[in-house]
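Sharing a chain and its predicted structure for anyone who wants a worked example. Both blocks are below, sequence first, tokens second.
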Amino acid sequence: MEYIKTEIDGVVILEPRVFNDERGYFLEAFSQQNFDENIFPLRFVQDNESKSTYGVVRGLHFQKGEHSQGKLVRVVKGAVLDVAVDIRKGSPTFGKYVAVELSDINHRMLFIPRGFAHGFSVLTPEVLFQYKCDNYYCRESEGGIAWDDAQLAIDWRIPRNEIVLSPKDASHKSLAQSDYLFDYNEDLYK
């Protein structure tokens, strides 16, 4: 596994070694020991999977406070543009984001630490998307940032008239209007 640092500290691209032959391929998708040694010791407690079709944008989501989540995400089928936005007030990269294409071709994964909003756009007819989370989901702690926040100016690589949103994702406020932000100086992993 190769661990590739991004321009935002803590957000890491994981690129597995893929062994191809006439039967197909094999890869190691996760090793707790390697993750702990190359990123930091972390215990994942919940795995989620979503299925989406072309044009869907999910996000930008986060869990607030004690329910905040770090995520290790990957695509099993199809391709997405995966986005992690730094929403830690006081961070040198506050309001910046990392966008990475994850697909069943490149097998890349993205680690998004606590303190970030996360979302993705579906670039292929169908996507199966998997999340490993380091904290349990809590409905009362849901938070979100507008997918089309002009300050962020994310190019989701989908024509605007083809974007499909849930009613909840269509109603999130901009980062500047958000009623909840993380504090960069707070240890979110204590």
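Comments welcome. The two ends are 27 Å apart (CA to CA).
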